[in-house]
Amino acid sequence: MEDLHRLTGTEILSGIRSRQISATEAARSCLDRIDSVDPTLQAFRTVLRQEALDRAGSVDRDLARGTDPGPLAGLPLAVKDVICLAGHPTTCGSRILRDFVPGFDATVIDRLRRAGAVFVGKTNMDEFAMGSSTENSGYERTRNPWDLERVPGGSSGGSAAAVAADLVPVSLGSDTGGSIRQPAAFCGLPGLKTTYGRVSRFGLVAFASSLDQIGPIGKCVEDLARLLAVIAGQDPRDSTSSLAPVPDYVGTLRRGIAGLRVGVPKEYFPPGLDAEIGAAVRRSLDRMAGLGATVKDISLPHTDYAIPTYYILATAEASSNLARYDGARYGRREPGARELGEMYRRSRSGGFGAEVKRRIMLGTFVLSSGYYDAYYLKAQKARTLLKQDFDRAFGEVDLIVTPTTPTAAFRFGEKTEDPLEMYLSDVFTATMNLAGVPALSLPCGVTRQGLPIGLQIVGPPFGEADVLRAGAALESDLGFRSLHRPRALER
Ligand code: GLN
User: Are 191 and 160 in contact (CB under 8 A)?
Assistant: First the structure.
């Protein structure tokens, strides 16, 4: 099949299952496309060429023998370089982990492997998932396939760019304050942040443990449902993973949204909101109403506190999580030190980039005695208020719809000089991590310049099934994928 790389994950799966294409052909088409496009795009940190072909071969042998290789048989997949895959480098986009090779698989990897998925490579990201543009990577500069002079978003920029440019049909990202949804929005794709506790984080390198979640990016909502069905569920190796039963995300996808109550929080449509983004989201809300949903105005009154609260708690947790990189156990040790303190200093000074150092300093400051009450404790209280906003809202509506980002993809360098500007990229997404609720970003239109716009569908804790079915209904109504696609790499 000529245009194999254009297919969605769901289409590839059914092609393999019906033996119209082989898993090996699917893997090869990804590897060929990576060879031709990735030197420009730079979405991948590592390509697992041999491993992918071996795995695909074994799926094909299973299918020929009549053995069921699992629900994701032969599906090529890319993994953000913050998730451990045994025997392959896991750099987290950081120089300090340049040579780190984990000896074990993350639980999500283990589950995907058993389901028959084929890992094609590890994708570039902002160092330790800190950033909104992938410009904080200690390695390549990943481009946006819709406009090569613009960022793909971050921190899962490599995972989003790889899918948008048809290098792989689906990928995994991680989301601490928006890192799946914002790059998905910038690259014109659906991406899902799951409920806190829905997906095991065993083997995910920690950034801010009370916020981090792993989730899928794909070409259609059904791709996300299929991946989530495999990775969701309790894991004895992650005590924060929930015992809540895993519903049938794929089976309930076609239920439509008739009868669902959709809330539109006024705080997410401020007067200064980009007019094109506001208009695209409002148009989509009209479509949802046309499909039978009831749309009503609501309020999430503490929204203004989301960004300061997020940047206090995330940096506090990061400063503690990143203390483990000391040159003694993981990754890089700077040579030439005469005593222990000097070894720590040299290894950390040389291994971490500027943004990571900034966050460690901020986090250490807000946790220090004398400032703890004023910042960290206050932020925890604000977090509770933000969470209560959602609890109250979900008493009157089933879902909440907002824009995903305040602007479409920006240019390289546009926000690197001013970290605060960069932090404001998360203004509509970080709240959902603080509240622990699931949120889907769905492409809903393009700007006059032809850049994708994303909207966000938010549900109550463990409400992924409703979030996904609302997303699937709106997706087929809007027809984004058949109307728009990135063309910057075609020239
Ligand atoms: N952009 C946010 C930050 O820099 C979110 C990152 C993330 O979700 N990992 O912290």
Answer: yes
The answer to whether residues 314 and 211 touch, using CB atoms and an 8 Å cutoff, is: yes
Say how far apart CA 30 and CA 38 lie, in whole Å: 11
- pTM here? 0.98
Token digits of residue 436: 């622990």
pLDDT (tens digit per residue) in 311-369: 999 999 999 999 999 999 888 899 999 999 999 999 999 999 999 999 999 999 999 98
Which protein residue has the closest C-alpha to ligand 1 atom 5?
A: 177
Q: What strand order describes the sheet that includes 399-403?
A: 44-47, 118-123, 76-80, 170-175, 213-217, 191-193, 439-446, 452-458, 399-403, 261-265, 294-298
Q: How far apart are CA 122 and CA 136, in angstroms?
A: 17
Helix (H, G, I), strand (E, B) or coil at 452: strand
Q: Is the dihedral of CA 423, 428, 434, 436 positive or negative?
A: negative
Q: Which residues of 173-211 are buried (b: 16+ CB within 10 A; e: fewer)?
A: bbbbbbbbbbbbbbbbbbbbbbbbbbbbbbbbbbbbebb
Nearest-atom index, ligand 1, CA of 178: 8
Among 82, 132, 313, 407, which residue has the most ligand 1 atoms within 8 Å of its CB, making it the best to mutate?
132
Question: Is the previous residue joined to 155 through a cis bond, with omega within 30 degrees of 0?
Answer: yes
Give the mean pLDDT per block of 10 residues along the chain (491 residues).
89 96 98 98 98 98 95 98 97 96 97 98 98 98 98 98 98 98 98 98 98 98 98 98 98 96 97 95 98 98 97 98 92 91 95 97 95 96 98 98 97 94 93 98 98 98 98 98 94 63
Out of 155, 315, 415, give the residue to mutate to test ligand 1, the one with the largest number of ligand atoms within 8 Å of its CB: 155
Pairing type for strands 44-47 and 76-80 reads unpaired
